[in-house]
Design a protein that fits this description.
Elements: H1 11-19, H2 51-76, E1 83-87, E2 93-98, E3 104-111, H3 125-132, E4 136-137, E5 140-141, H4 142-151, E6 155-160, E7 165-172, H5 175-190, H6 196-213, H7 217-230, H8 243-247, H9 251-261, E8 268-273, H10 277-288, E9 311-314, E10 320-328, H11 337-349, H12 355-362, E11 370-374, E12 382-390, H13 394-411, H14 415-427, H15 436-448, H16 455-465, H17 468-478, E13 485-489
Parallel strand pairs: 2-8, 9-13
Antiparallel strand pairs: 1-2, 3-7, 3-8, 4-5, 6-7, 10-12, 10-13, 11-12
Helix pairs in contact: 3-9, 5-10, 11-14, 11-17, 12-13, 13-17
Length: 492
């Protein structure tokens, strides 16, 4: 799936957000943060395994893993996840979980090099820099990288959002396969070539993708919504990418961005899998020991301010109106995180159990689905309500959504709604850490945003402690309907 920069989460991700069926509705795994993206959204997968190897990795291993998962799920809510943490001499922060259930190793290396680090004159530079890391490195061509990764059944991809950029590796943990995969990942991180011919080709491809995306109502709505929420803030830069800005990117600018932002003391490594602590330390050193140091913290992002409430209607031939409503929401370390998180489950994050579904779909039949979610980031990420409806019903649907939100802010959930939300969130929690991939996502977030190592162990307890009064207080202070922006694409 190709989703250019500035796009909202793909429809399949949005549906998971809406239903809170994803492992953690308010961690980045629900949105752009862990989708393997190319600079303008295309998947950055390198090293596709041959059919038999891929079958083995994708089917044989999960079947074996299911057995261990059943044991894990049964005890996960009561047993601490053994997260190890250390800081290397060069400043790299490492989080690691040792797990020998499967012969696999998952590794991520991330930097504060997301789209918010772009220059206003060069939006798209950060994502193109990440994209080219695996398209030629250390004297290896992209073909060399793909063939060598395929030879060992490993995959190397990228993750990208406003805050973060980095590479992710999955490989067999046996020595030959692991060493070859790590060698390729190290070359991509430490000595990317940024080939001129590849850059020109990818610019052409990205321009074509962007032009196509700009005809799609969901992309148009998401891009405008992000721009309206963030205005002049760096989080809006991902909405400013145009064919002309892509065409203007030069190789020396990619090299300069890489040298400025891919620094050892800003890096976070997350590992989980079939290696010992000593081996994990060797891997971390191998991947980052040659990176230069920045000697200081990254430039802090400016604060996010509430936008001026306004509605923008965009003409489009779509048969349905695509509607987004929202404002800046919460940060990753937000003191109101759990009241907002649990409250949103009741409001619009709980699928058919949510208030918005009840009012807009069940009672009035105005939509097939409607969702709300928070996407916390370094600064306030978006709080979004999204729906699609018949063009002639857009006005009525908007009024019902706005009325429902205002009522929820004023009164909060009922005690019964809160009880059911807690049961669903706590009861489903073990499924959120039932695979190495999911745990890796959590480790990366814990490391990058410096969350407590006990974050996962404390999660269900903090959900259980949320009260109706806390939800009402948090929503009253944080969600301001008069400051919400509204985008309607496909308006009559």
């Amino acid at each position: 799936m190709l989703v250019p920069v500035g796009a909202p989460p793909p429809a399949r991700i949005r549906s998971q957000i809406a239903a809170n069926s994803h492992p953690h509705p308010n961690l980045p795994l629900e949105g752009e943060g862990t989708i393997a993206l190319s600079p303008f959204g295309g998947e950055l997968e390198r090293g596709l395994a041959p059919l038999l190897q891929r079958f083995w990795l994708e089917w044989t291993i999960p079947v074996k893993f299911l057995v261990s998962c059943l044991l894990l799920v049964a005890t996960a809510a009561h047993a601490a996840l053994p997260i190890q943490h250390w800081k290397m001499d060069n400043g790299v922060r490492v989080v690691f979980v040792e797990n020998h259930d499967l012969p696999l190793l998952d590794v991520s290396v991330e930097f504060p090099a997301g789209s918010s680090r772009d220059d206003k004159s060069r939006p798209g530079l950060a994502s193109m820099t990440l994209h080219l890391l695996t398209l030629g490195a250390g004297g290896m061509t992209e073909g060399d990288i793909s063939r060598r990764m395929a030879d060992i059944g490993a995959s190397l991809g990228g993750s990208f959002d406003q805050d973060r950029a980095g590479l992710r590796l999955r490989t067999l943990s046996s020595e030959r396969e692991r060493d070859q995969a790590l060698e390729i990942m190290a070359r991509a991180l430490l000595s990317p070539d940024f080939p001129e011919a590849v850059l020109e080709r990818e610019k052409t491809r990205s321009i074509a993708e962007l032009k196509e995306a700009k005809t799609q109502p969901e992309f148009i709505a998401g891009r405008l919504f992000n721009a309206m929420i963030y205005g002049a803030h760096p989080y809006a830069l991902s909405s400013m990418v145009e064919p002309e800005t892509i065409a203007a990117l030069r190789r020396e600018e990619l090299v300069g961005f890489y040298r400025a932002h891919y620094r050892a003391d800003h890096a976070v490594i997350a590992l989980i899998g079939d290696v010992t602590t000593a081996q994990a330390r060797e891997i971390a050193a191998r991947l980052t020991s040659a990176l230069p140091r920045a000697e200081g913290e990254p430039q802090p992002l400016p604060a996010v301010f509430l936008p001026k409430g306004e509605t923008r209607k965009i003409a489009h031939p779509a048969t349905q109106s695509h509607i987004l409503i929202g404002q800046p929401g919460m940060t990753r370390n937000d003191p109101d995180y759990f009241p907002l998180y649990v409250g949103n489950y009741v409001l619009g994050g709980g699928g058919f159990a949510s208030r918005l579904i009840e009012e807009v779909r069940q009672k009035r039949g105005l939509v097939y689905s409607v969702h709300s979610y928070f996407l916390p980031m370094q600064q306030q990420g978006p709080f979004e309500i999204g729906l699609q409806t018949k063009r002639e019903q857009a006005g009525e649907a908007l009024e019902v959504v706005r009325s429902t939100v205002r009522n929820f802010i004023a009164k909060g959930p009922t005690e019964d709604e809160l009880k059911r939300a807690k049961q669903n969130l706590v009861g489903g929690f073990p499924l959120r850490i039932d695979s190495n991939r999911k745990i890796l996502d959590y480790l990366a977030v814990i490391g990058f945003y410096r969350l407590p190592l006990s974050y996962l162990d404390d999660f269900t307890g903090k959900v259980e402690k949320v009260t109706v009064a806390q939800i009402r207080d948090a929503f009253t202070r944080r969600i301001q309907p008069d400051n919400m922006v509204t985008v309607v694409v496909g308006a009559d």
